[in-house]
Amino acid sequence: MSATAVPVDAPIEVGSSDSRPLAVVTGASSGLGEAIARRLSDRGYRVLLVARRADRLAALAGELAGAVAVEADLLAPEGPSAVLAAVDAAGGRLSVLVNNAGIGGRGTFAEAGYAGVRQTMDLNFDAQLRLTEALLPAVRAAAPSSILFVSSVSGKIARPGAGAYSASKFALNGWAEALRAEEGAGGVHVGTILPGFIATEGFPQRELLAKRTTRWLVGKPEMVADAAEHLIRTRRPERHAPPAWRLMSLLAAVAPRLVARIVAAPEMTPSTTTD
Predict the structure, then answer these.
(1) What is the pLDDT of residues 238-264, one digit of tens each?
(2) Beta strand residue intervals within 131-187, DSSP E
(3) Which of 209, 111, 200 is nearest to 150 (CA)?
(4) Catalytic positions, please?
(5) Is the pTM of this model over 0.85?
(6) Do 116 and 105 meet the contact criterion of CB atoms below 8 Å apart?
(7) Residues 264, 212: contact at Cβ < 8 Å?
(8) Which of 1, 158, 167, 201 has its CA 20 to 30 A from that of 272?
């Protein structure tokens, strides 16, 4: 599917003399992407909302001043170049790129096999790289600017039944670290957001919410928006969401066997809506 820019009724039109910086947010039709898009709009950015569900995008764009809905399949060969065309059409400086689109990738390797890993890597890793490659010149031209990757605590701690998901997030974290070193001198900040268990349409966290003993572990999408805002403002390399999840990542480094026992519990790998 190619990308289609869908103008919406808003005070500022695409291609106008609006001087506000641009922000591209992928996976913006719901969940974490929607929360981040709303926050960036509130903070004065013109947001290009990228996802596949045109109706959802149009509805959200209608609520955000100057926003543009860009219906795009980031797995399609023409996806990244079509998003770039939408950026060019909007005009202005591309100050923020938020790579958020992704899928859950559940199932053991014996069940899902290589095909399951490949499917998860295609969107959670490959699509992020391809879009970043297409938009990097525009982000460089807008420096000081930011590229954010919505990764996961699963990119620090692997869990049984979610190996494909963890592999994609470990890879994303490693590549983001290298990109940060490569682009920092030119004024491009690269930040990684590491959410814990956040309840969204795609990740409802049903198993955790069903028990009083684990319900407290589940956060809200606004916590990820908080992390995005923090990284853009401080230009730090990473942020857990909520921040307390950093303790789990640190514990995994010093007591890996203990953490392995904790995450082996079935409820610690909740089902997703794609399972």
Answers:
(1) 999 988 889 989 998 999 999 899 888
(2) 145-150
(3) 200
(4) 165
(5) yes
(6) yes
(7) no
(8) 1
